[in-house]
Design brief:
alpha/beta
């Protein structure tokens, strides 16, 4: 079980991101800073992510380091298979049937966070459904949810409506598709998430 409590992060100790997941090689990306409030957070930041291959995890860690936020991995109770084709078939089936797979990830006190940065790969033009499970497990009323995705070519645009539907009561800020060349610091600074 992965859990986060008062300033403590516990992970499952394993690396579920050993094999290639449903994505294509990344290409350079030039970020746009969305038209958003300049300071979505006066409080603590939680960076939560789902990663199959490790790509999203690397970007989530960059964001946590820059914001000083806590970081938490969304871990499905039943891991996705190592085989790429099998994973994409399951992901497509979950999306088609609007499944919310069980997860072994808990936040003991979501009330301590004002801003939640949510990261995920793009699978079938959507976030993995485990991300929606996580968001729907909490009352996010009054919180700011900022998204980011990793993808070789798919835009974050189509995934935003899924996040908005699952983060009920939150202000959702459509974020960035992040690659190794994305200026993450400038993007986060534009959102007011870099501590002074």
């Amino acid at each position: 079980v992965t859990a986060i409590g008062a300033g403590m992060v516990l992970t499952n100790g394993g690396d579920n991101d050993v094999t290639t997941g449903p994505s294509v090689p990344e290409t350079p990306d030039v970020p746009d800073t969305p038209d958003v409030p300049t300071s979505p957070s006066d409080g603590r930041v939680l960076v939560v992510y789902f990663s199959k291959t490790g790509t999203t995890e690397v970007q989530a860690q960059r964001i946590a380091d820059l914001t000083g936020g806590d970081i938490l991995e969304i871990v499905p109770t039943v891991p996705y298979p190592g085989d790429y084709s099998a994973t994409t078939e399951i992901a497509q089936e979950e999306l088609r049937n609007d499944v919310r797979p069980a997860i072994d990830t808990k936040v003991e006190d979501m009330g301590q966070y004002d801003t939640i940065v949510v990261g995920y790969p793009i699978w079938w033009n959507a976030p993995p459904m485990a991300v929606l499970t996580f968001l729907e497990d909490y009352d996010l009323t009054g919180k700011t949810v900022v998204t980011f995705c990793t993808s070789g070519g798919s835009s974050i645009l189509n995934s935003t409506s899924y996040i908005e539907g699952s983060a009920e009561g939150a202000t959702v800020i459509e974020g960035q598709r992040i690659t190794q060349s994305t200026d993450v610091r400038s993007w986060l600074d534009g959102l007011g998430l870099i501590p002074e």
